[in-house]
Design goal:
The protein has 124 residues and is α+β, with helices and mostly antiparallel strands. The protein has a single domain, classed as 60s Ribosomal Protein L30, Chain: A (2-Layer Sandwich). Helix content is 34%, strand content 20%. The protein has three helices and four strands, in the order αβαβαββ. The longest helix has 23 residues. The protein is elongated and about 45 Å long. The termini are close together. This is OmpA/MotB domain-containing protein.
Length: 124
C-alpha cells in the first residue's frame, strides 16, 4: 500500500506527538471499503497499516516495540459504501495511542516529555 500525496504532512504532525511517549503503544489500524473480496480487503487493510508504521519507523526512529498493526478490512465502516465519497472515507488508517506498561521503552533523556492522548484517522 502506498501513502497518498499530502498524507506526509498529517503524519508528521502525528509523529511529533507520538515520538517520545514511553509506556504508550502506537496502535495503527487499517480499513477498506467493500470493493473486493473479504480476504483481499483484510490483507489490504493490514498493508495500509504496515505502510504507515514503516514510514513512522523510518522518519521518527521509533522502535518496533512501540507499534501494534491491525487490519479490519471493511468490517468497521465510517460511512456508507453506497457512494464513492463513502467508500473513500472507509479507506483509511486510524492511529491511536494506548497506555501499556512496557511498551515503547525509550532512553532516559526522552522520558522528560508528558504523554498526550492522540487519535487520528487518515485516508490512504
Amino acid at each position: 500500500a502506498e501513502l497518498k500525496p499530502g498524507s506526509t504532512k498529517v503524519l508528521i504532525n502525528a509523529l511529533v506527538n507520538i515520538k517520545a511517549q514511553s509506556g504508550w503503544l502506537i496502535v495503527i489500524a487499517g480499513h477498506t471499503d467493500v470493493t473486493g473480496s473479504p480476504e483481499h480487503n483484510l490483507e489490504l487493510s493490514r498493508a495500509r497499516a504496515a505502510s504507515v508504521r514503516d514510514w513512522m519507523q523510518r522518519m521518527g526512529d521509533i522502535s518496533d516495540s512501540c507499534f501494534a498493526v491491525q487490519g479490519f478490512g471493511a468490517s468497521q465502516p465510517v460511512a456508507s459504501n453506497d457512494t464513492e465519497a463513502g467508500r473513500a472515507a472507509n479507506r483509511r488508517v486510524d492511529i491511536r495511542l494506548v497506555p501499556e506498561v512496557g511498551a515503547c521503552v525509550l532512553p532516559t533523556a526522552a522520558l522528560d516529555r508528558n504523554p498526550l492522548s492522540h487519535s487520528a484517522a487518515f485516508n490512504f
